[in-house]
Amino acid sequence: MVAATARSEQSPSTTTPESPPAPAEHRPPPAEEGAAAATATAAAAAGTTAAAPAPAPAAAGPSPTPPGAPTPLTTPPTPPASAAPRASSAGTAAAASGACRGGAGRGGGRAPPPPPLDDLLVRTSWCDAALALAQLDKGKASGERAALWMRAWLQGHLFALGCFLHRHAGKVLFVALLVLATFCVGLKSAQVHSRVDQLWVEEGGRLERELEYTRRALGEADASTHQLVIQTPRDEGASLLHAGALLAHLDVVRAAVAVTVQLFDTTWRLKDICYSPSIPNFEENYIDQIFENVMPCAIITPLDCFWEGSKLLGPDYPVHIPTLGAKVKWTNLNPLKIVEEMRNFDFHHFPFDTLEDYMKRAGISSGYQEKPCLDPSDVECPETASNKKAGQSPDIGAELTGGCYGFAAKYMHWPEDLVVGGTTKNKTGHIQKARALQTVVQLMGERELYEFYSDTYKVHHVEWTQEKAAIVLETWQRRFSEEIRRQLNGENITAYNIYAFSTATLNDILSQFSELSVVKMVAGYLSMLLYAGVSLFRWHDPVRSQAGIGIAGVILVSITVAAGLGFCALLGIAFNASTTQIVPFLALGLGVDDMFLLTHTYAEQNSSNIKSDEHTGIVLKRSGLSILLTSLSNVCAFFAAAIIPIPALRVFSLQAAVLVLFNLGAMLLVFPALVSFDLRRRRAGRLDLLCCCVAPSSSDTGSHMWPCISLPPAPQRTNRRRGQVVPEQPKKLQAITRALPPDRQQTVTVLASPQPATQLPNAPECWVGSTRELLNTDPEKGYINPATCHMQECWSWSLTRLAAKHYAPLLSKPPVKVVSMVMLGFVLASSVWGLTKVTDGLDLTDIVPQHTDEHAFLTAQSRYFGFYNMYAVTQGDFEYPTNQKLLYEYHDAFMRIPNIIKNDDGGLPEFWLSMFRDWLIGVQKAFDRDWARGSITQEKWYSNASDEGILGYKLLVQTGHVDNPIDKSLVNQVRLVDSHGIINPKAFYNYLSAWTSNDVLAYGASQANLRPQPRQWIHAPDDFELKIPKSAPLVYTQLPFDLHGLGSTEHITNLIGQVRALCQKFEERGLPNYPSGIPFLFWEQYLGLRQSLGLALLCALAAVFLVVAVLLFNLWSAVLVVFALAAMVLQLLGVMGLLGIKLSAIPAVLLIVAVGIGVHFTVHISMGFITSIGCRDRRMQLALESLFAPVIHGAFTTLLGVLMLAFSEFDFIVRYFFYVLFALIALGLLNGLVFFPILLSLIGPRAEVVPHEYPDRISTPSPPPSPVRVRSGSCRVTKISTPRRGHSHSNRLHRAPSLTTITEEANSWHSTHEIVVQPELVVETTYSPTQNTSASCDSSSSHSSTPPPSSSQTHVTTKVTATAHVKVEVHTPRPGVIDRDGNKSRQSRHRDSGSEPESSDSMGRHS
């Protein structure tokens, strides 16, 4: 502790002008002045570098020049551009300190701002938590001991890591690049998922289990594919219910179905790949060939309501029927008439009765011959057409009402909602207006196509695989779409829009959507490189410029992102649309954010006062914990988000977490090595970006310059951080000190220099406000006039200076706080309102590029056709033969689902079991007829028995037992179907084999897809073998239903809920079942999406809370951070509602991203707040001053990466990615730099360190112990010397030659002693007052000098005697460091104190 008193004497030569007293509010407290002066004096005398003491509180801070006082010769030093981040801290600290104390000093003129404090004094725990902990141990401060201990431990390891990286920078960089390049190779094994079930189906959930069961039963590929065509009028108000529209539709579809493709040396037509109804096997080759050629493809079209629909069915070449001589096409085919004509000829006992029964059951009658013609004048229009004779166009609306029928009317009913859209009906339900027509061409699936041609001559010359089958299908579908497009561009189609769409087109779109745009990614990365280089480039200082390290950092982050993605590929984490479109840019933005924080800290360091091998360690020590905190928060948040079972979201979360970990490793392990290389370049004085060139120096200022570039000279700045200065060329000055009346307790020291030739003779002297300012700054330099903006200084403008001088003080004003809090409340209320507008859903139109045919098709389909199909699937572990009644009840229960299309009678369409039953009933009736007339007996049948009767006999004798399959006694004991409609359970699977083989058209129309496939058994009347093979028990069946009225996600989710409830009810009754279809595949995710998203957000926020609470040991700070993050998520949801963005898996991903990005906006500010010293306002300003620039740079670089998404051809990417991410960054800046700092200033957590002596800084810490050389058994502290009078040295006072000499006993080095001395310092100065002694000098006269005294002027001699009561603590060093560090300490003390080496041999520690 130091107490100082001063005595002042004046002995004027002639007259002494009396100086008026300084205002009380401007006078610093004498005790603090003396303490500060003595502390600095003792530190200087000890030969160590002590941190500058703090300025006086703002309320008693630097005063303006009082009237009559000497004018200062120099103004307070302004730091150079390289130290710009700390240049503005003076104003901030002073303003904040004044705000904490109720206002700044008031008075005459405006004084220059006081010199800023070093971060070590005002942000102690951020700079050195161990020092802060030592302050607590000494009782000089109170605070959070546990938090400081944890941070000190982490900082110690980070410092050691930084020093290690500095020593081995080259090795570390080489190994790191080698490892990263190795992981980049993993990108070759990356897999991209674009299928719907791979993106949206919940992993491990009910739907995934159901899809897996379906795949095991049916195979991997889909059962069928579809080619769709939609026609709409170009005039939206027009109707298509006229013959011209339908005929135009016919021409386009007819041309499209006629396309062929040449693949694998084979021509593929629609007939080769389409789905066509099955036909029975008649065991007559030429008859089977006729049916094969005549049987058409299944085409669902509104043209089937008219005769013109037959023109789509072909065949391509007319079929010749022997003996009839007819060339048959569907335009002239009457199936019943053909059969009747064939009966008149001998066809070798052909089973015409079986064929007629087959046609009757299928509803095959006259084909298209009795349907009306759209154009009755067509020469091919049959005479049997209903309007042929009248020659009038049909009532198209009436014909389309209720749907259309194909050639097999019973099994080919096309629902009205499937073929006609945008209808308007009259009171009777007849269609009066229609705005859309739709045709669906049904194709085989790739698996079916592969199996169909596996053992055929068509592909015998190639290795036929399922992949080749898929190529055939996709190529034909693309050719089909191209033909539709060509027809639309023709001259015949002018009034209509016709669009084609297929599953191949959808797969192409999803694949293209999932592809990474290399051009956009490269453009985004180059823009970040450019921004990093420009923002860190310094025109005025080519050596301290950081453009090279910034560009190297962006390149490092880019390589790290690629390596992280390669590592994800090696782990088997697949890529999808969200990962390829978001992750590379997001990871780059977050990584560059950390890079800017490190470069910001690196730029602030003053390398002249730091050992070269510790510089990198200090950078990591100060910024490493912030990076560690934000990165771990992001990792935990992303891993927490991975609990959402939707694959697209889970994959994104896992990849983002891995990339954040890779970025963390790169920033803490690799980038410091780059910093070490850049530090070596700076110390060598080499140019930034041109490290091989040495920077030339300016002859005027000695500063470095860019080659071939000359800048106007700027006033010299001090190169310092808080309270640290860099020496300039020494100047000879005269110190003039006098005491201020009336109490003579304060002194004014004037520095006079020789008057330049251009100096006016009457220029007033300039003065330094108090002794403290003399102690805190280099007395031979001063501040640059802040009002003078030289070109070089304007170029050195920085975001930190903006934050310190303008932005942070603005936020501290009470009106701004009130307005901001009101605005926050309004924003949160608006967000809640916007949240109510967010709906669930993801339309296919959102993920298809606009202004394409596919987008127009999907838009028309979603607008006019809300039609889907679904299946009710029954599973194994169920006794089908004995539970037939339950199956009927299950089928009938779907009557209660309003969206299911009913048949003409108001009931449900038949399903496989009812068709099976009806077929058996028909066979039973035929047997009963033959039994009644004696054609069949118990033992045999006769030649007059019908084919159906013989089949019934064979079925009735089946026992259902493998060991005893036949029992003829059952013929008159059992019935195929009992009176209750139940099929004989014992022979159920024998009957099933017969039905599926002999009623193939019904079985195909049932869409039952029975698995295992029933055994094949073809009935032959002349075959006396009675045994019918028994099929295996069923494990998979389908019940088809058609759905309509599903135009919105809400309608679809309601349907899903109703169907799921129905299925669950029968599951409880013992029927294992589940629904299947497009609505369940796409939209079931929305049933639990909000709950899963809410859970993921809670987990992410909880993870951030735990990380912040553990690493900062501050629960209240963690609560405020989580509150800010939750507010950002709520605001983002509100923005989504305002933009009309629907909630799906991808927006859910972005909501999780909001937590990760928000961490960077809040955690840095929160940590800067709690590690600062002072009141809340002051700590808020210090936090903004330190972190405003890194936060802005990080946000801008992230925005640059996101900006590339704005140029995507996918509207979905623009709306769902760019808009949302842009809003997220804007909300992050608003919350992180406006709302959150103000919230901290109002209810922020307590500071970690609360000093006892000063309110806004810690007490000046003791300097580190100096090693002492022990001499022959005695420990002697040598004489403490100071520079001789007149010797100039930076950051030191002119002191007396010595203070005292201290000697101790030989064994005293084992303990610590306190010694009290009272040295007396006498300063005698003389000055010559100017003629205008009452004038004061403002900052504009900062460059003037005091004129030398002349003989005609009076001389005032001031003699000041100061006695300091100094208490000196002597700490002898540890024995282990005495000899090792002796030479280094001598060199350090010689550099700091300017004394000879031998004079500081055994220097002790003084405070």
UniProtKB/TrEMBL annotation:
Residues 1396-1407 have a biased composition (Polar residues). Residues 63-82 have a biased composition (Pro residues). GO terms for cellular component: plasma membrane. It is a multi-pass membrane protein. GO terms for biological process: negative regulation of smoothened signaling pathway. The keyword Transmembrane applies. The keyword Membrane applies. The chain crosses the membrane at residues 518-537, 549-575, 581-603, 624-646, 652-677, 1093-1113, 1119-1141, 1148-1167, 1187-1207, 1216-1240. Residues 32-62, 83-99, 1334-1365 have a biased composition (Low complexity). Residues 1366-1394 have a biased composition (Basic and acidic residues). It is found in: Membrane. One of its GO terms (molecular function) is smoothened binding. Residues 100-110 have a biased composition (Gly residues). Residues 1-119, 1328-1407 are annotated as: Disordered. Keywords: Glycoprotein, Membrane, Receptor, Transmembrane, Transmembrane helix. Signal peptide: none annotated. Pfam families: Sterol-sensing (PF12349). Residues 517-677 form the SSD domain. Belongs to the patched family. NCBIfam families: 2A060602. This is SSD domain-containing protein. It comes from Gryllus longicercus. The lineage of its organism: Eukaryota, Metazoa, Ecdysozoa, Arthropoda, Hexapoda.
